[in-house]
């Protein structure tokens, strides 16, 4: 395990240098210039403890990565900002494209929280790499620090953010760099992974295959980044087994390359405290609470094209005798338009799964995504005892099957949904049995302790 404290033979030297630095009768600007020169030396001493001569030689070398003054100043500003916020002993840097309340961001937070639970003395950086968006509803946690690269670059170009992320990894030398859906992060891995893997173990996550408008052409993270990015990675993580199996076949991965692909199942945010007892209670009260009322179905997620809002619109138009409560907002696309119909109730964004069931019970949950890994929203509503109708895209079939829900074909029609919904209304006992089976599945595979156990056992990640 890497040592993060200053080694004893350099402690006196560094303390003396620090006292001299603060007592020098120089302007702050001049002191910052001095700091810019010695910062790589101090960082290297703290991280690897080579000889002072080797460190200074590396800092002065023409090929040193910090030789560009403007580039160096960006890194300096970022590191000083981290120091000002009390960041220390960073063991993991996790990159995300933006910080919202979606699935990928929840995965990043889960890994960060697991690291903190396993090693409370270590800190984690969540680097918002592609866009500057940070949702105000994202919960800030002790020891997990959000860094927005755009705040330290002169413009919004990926090239600048890529170079800054690269320099940050080299400067901090974390145990792990983990990229989750960031194009900036993928470019760093592809272009500089062979060098970076000497100072950190490299991980990335891909959750599903994505497809173009024709429904056949593969696009997105797997198509663009998996093959060129795989060689320097310690492991490529997914949240479902189906992607792991399909990717091995799709790209002809065998031997060591195939073994790099691993599935780590996500925990359900709703599986806390006495969640199971509460869910069983909701299921037992379900029939009585719904009796005599119009069927009410819940939909929640991003109002983006890949979530098949067009299919949802067709469904609500064809089922005027059902009420639909729709939670969410657009993140990637401009917001998809929902019809102004009496049976459509647009509820807006949500931060917690419990918000979804606070006002009413539901006949069931409707899931309409075009592609998916293992959707967090299904883990959440399933743990709340709400029965689910969903197409078996990506890893969904590992969660929603005949025993545990109402699975549909990968390319379902509105009629497929309507038939499943009417079956739920006609057979309440069967619905309750499937909802309880879903609780069993989540309890055995998607709880927080189980997730931490997986992270801790992941070679190179749990340290």
Describe the structure.
- The protein has 463 residues and is of the alpha/beta class.
- The protein folds into three domains: 64 residues, no CATH class; 205 residues, 3-Layer(aba) Sandwich (Rossmann fold), CATH 3.40.50.2000; 172 residues, Rossmann fold, CATH 3.40.50.2000.
- Helix content is 45%, strand content 15%.
- The protein is built from 17 helices and 15 strands.
- The strands form three sheets. It has a seven-stranded parallel β-sheet, with helices on both faces.
- A hairpin with a 6-residue loop joins strand 6 and strand 7.
- Helix 4 crosses helix 6, helix 5 crosses helix 17 and helix 6 packs across helix 7.
- The radius of gyration is 25 Å and the shape is elongated.
- The N and C termini lie close together (7 Å).
- The N terminus is likely disordered.
- This is Glycosyltransferase.
- Pfam families: Glyco_trans_1_4.
